[in-house]
Amino acid sequence: MTDSQNRTAPDMWVDPEDDPRTQWADPVGELETHWSYLRSYRATIEMKCVDLDAEQLARRSVPPSTLSLLGLVRHLAKVEHTWFRRVLQSRTDLPRLYSTAEDPDADFDGAVADPAVVEEAWTAWRREVEAADAWLATQTDADMATVVLHHGRPMIVRDVLEHMVEEYARHAGHADLLRECIDGRTGQ
């Protein structure tokens, strides 16, 4: 991304014509619509973290909250892993990501200002997004009504995908506020 002095819209993260989220702006069908919203919110999270160092990414919001941008990246990797792999693909053989019985909030608790932790978080998030997208690419609009069992309860694929959009939307709002506290940059 270019600095604000070189943009036609300096108050925005990127010029509107360079916004990566517009590539999903014309979805066709139910699956593609949900997926395009999810992709857009994923890109928003990445945009909110750009150009920040480990300390800035790990900076906590308001004590005693453990909320940070790095924690959000780790949390969203965990959410992608849980819903797309463990639930929708019934891969309960996979260990949980960033969550243990002793520390169910390890995603946020372990978000410390260490470049290796930052690198690992982005690697995990990108791996889980790629795996989710690979699975979604095998689905059709008809699959949106498919029922899977989760803890003995029926879950509809559509509901899980809508939950993922809601999860990202909620955390994109958090990311807006966290980024503004770090360097004053506000949302687009």
TrEMBL record:
Q: Name one Pfam family in it.
A: MST
Membrane-crossing ranges are none
The UniProt annotation puts the region (Disordered) at 1-25
What protein am I looking at?
Answer: DinB family protein
Q: From which source organism is this entry?
A: Isoptericola luteus
